[in-house]
Amino acid sequence: MKRLFLVIFSISIISACSQSEKKLPILGEREAVEKIVDGKTVVDTVYKTIPDFSFLNQDSIVINSDSLTNSIYIADFFFTSCPSICPIMSKNMLSIYNKYKGNNEVRFLSYSIDPKHDTIPVLKKYATKLGVEGSQWSFLLGDRDTVYNLARNGYMSYTKENADAPGGVEHSGYFILVDKEKRIRGAYDGTDKTQVETLTNDIDILLAEYKTNK
């Protein structure tokens, strides 16, 4: 019995170590750059990062790249009058938000792709109805073209007007996980509970990665 306990205990330690050492991939474009380190030329990999941005949230607070310093975050694109996937996405994002509520190391950004309708009061009402308080989860309002370009060129996502689409706008339903260096570390179908669970697990892995590197 004692030997069995020691075997189980050893396996548990190995499993825990494996989990803590696991790292998420870095997604997106990359390029090799030469630099001089200690007088020697070395090749380093530079990954594409999310471009700087600045928007107002539901409380008329400016949220920009600097606002997210020392935080990882999950981003998505939505509009409050969306009759199709957005309500499902918001519900699933809420479940993640509730798990990390109060943890400023984890933030949430939902970019409105219908700024003509989604004014600050409309976004505030939407956030309040979900039970969101403070700026840990920000519902962002900005110029439509700026948001569309950020989705396409920053988050590897897409949004476009389409008269045949529900609500007149077609957009990606993905949740994008971004690290503290503004690099994309994962993309998950925000309407799929299994992928949302994977995202939650990956958030923990990413947080552990930063603790390991301290």
Automatic annotation (TrEMBL):
<feature type="domain" description="Thioredoxin">
    <location>
        <begin position="44"/>
        <end position="208"/>
    </location>
</feature>
<dbReference type="InterPro" id="IPR013766">
    <property type="entry name" value="Thioredoxin_domain"/>
</dbReference>
<dbReference type="InterPro" id="IPR036249">
    <property type="entry name" value="Thioredoxin-like_sf"/>
</dbReference>
<comment type="similarity">
    <text>Belongs to the SCO1/2 family.</text>
</comment>
<dbReference type="Pfam" id="PF02630">
    <property type="entry name" value="SCO1-SenC"/>
</dbReference>
<dbReference type="InterPro" id="IPR003782">
    <property type="entry name" value="SCO1/SenC"/>
</dbReference>
<protein>
    <submittedName>
        <fullName>SCO family protein</fullName>
    </submittedName>
</protein>
<keyword id="KW-0186">Copper</keyword>
